[in-house]
Amino acid sequence: MKVRIIERIQVKPSIWSGGKTYEYCIYPPEGSYSDRQFVLRISSATIESVPSTFTKFEGFRRYLVMLDNTLQINHNKEDKEYKQDSMFVFNSSDDITSFSQGTDFNLMLAHSIQDEVVELRVFPFMTKCNFVFVFALKAMDIRVNKEIFKVEQGDCVVVENPNEVLLDIEMGNRSIVGYLNL
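User: That's the sequence. What structure does it adopt?
Assistant: Structure tokens below.
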């Protein structure tokens, strides 16, 4: 088992048409976002231009959570609104235009990944999945089995669990959590 803390302040931004994106993690590690050569990508982005059109990616689904604002979008010609800290799940090839500014959490998964769990939660959980992440919405302690990690708001804890041992994970505050098999 390998635990990494990816600190928000260490993540370098890159530009997208509507603002900046901060890539926390891409899998496989040698993967490329621009070449669409990956199966998982965890990022956060700012939406600065309004309206802004989300980048399309064939073969992926996305989980998006607004961290500081309500998300007002047009999704395939239908107007929708998502409150802060609620999850919006969509096919990455959908037509999405945002009419909100703010900062989001964004998880992209290739369609080849099945049976993932991605949710906002505060309660502890156990899993044998080989890939787990916890994105901190506030500063807190996160316990992975018996080891405690201190994280700040916007940090992401990634657990690689290739031997699929049982993980017991507890968060000190509400977080965005995902567990899946790569």
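The first strand starts at residue 2 and ends at 6.
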